[in-house]
Q: What sequence folds into this?
């Protein structure tokens, strides 16, 4: 779709608008833009296992599939992506977070892939908010990072913030001291093996 900047401003508050790229037009003095929508699908699940399995399936929807031994853990930290001292043959622990006030600060919350540049592309993480999603898994398609899933644990949406935070911290205790490969296998099957 092409929009003039005037139309773009009318759409700026639209939840589907994430980015726009200006494209010069031969006959117009006002450049046109193409909108790129980054979709986040929200789905409801009755259990942790069902939400985690759906998240893993979401990641693997394209031609490229996750190779569990290539995954890395990531941990919530304010300082950004920092290699930790814990490494193994194919595994490096990374610290990641935007919010120091998060109850997940300093804790492992998910798995992702380390890029050639050394950054981590998160694939699946367990998250929590008090704005309608409660406790949920966030997943990103491996072949199309613009396609995202919020797999919501329905029973957590209407919990009090204190009860939700307590349950979230219990879930995070369950992923402590686990490898990224273990977490992927658990979350993709819904079973701790």
A:
């Amino acid at each position: 779709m092409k929009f003039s900047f005037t139309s773009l401003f009318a759409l700026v508050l639209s939840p589907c608008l994430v980015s726009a790229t200006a494209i010069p037009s031969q006959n117009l003095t006002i450049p046109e833009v193409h909108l790129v929508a980054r979709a986040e699908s929200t789905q409801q699940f009755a259990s942790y296992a069902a939400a985690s399995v759906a998240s893993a399936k979401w990641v693997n929807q394209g031609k490229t599939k996750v190779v569990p031994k290539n995954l890395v853990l990531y941990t919530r930290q304010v300082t950004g992506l920092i290699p930790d001292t814990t490494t193994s043959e194919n595994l490096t622990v990374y610290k990641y977070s935007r919010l120091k006030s998060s109850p997940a600060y300093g804790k492992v919350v998910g798995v992702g892939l380390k890029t050639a540049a050394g950054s981590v592309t998160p694939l699946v993480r367990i998250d929590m908010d008090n704005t309608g999603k409660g406790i949920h898994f966030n997943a990103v398609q491996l072949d199309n990072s613009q396609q995202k899933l919020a797999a919501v644990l329905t029973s957590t949406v209407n919990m009090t913030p204190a009860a939700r935070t307590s349950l979230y911290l219990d879930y995070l205790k369950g992923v402590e001291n686990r490898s990224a490969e273990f977490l992927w296998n658990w979350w993709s099957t819904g079973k701790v093996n």
Remarks:
- Residues 1-36, 78-97 have pLDDT under 50 and may be disordered.
- The radius of gyration is 19 Å.
- The first strand starts at residue 2 and ends at 4.
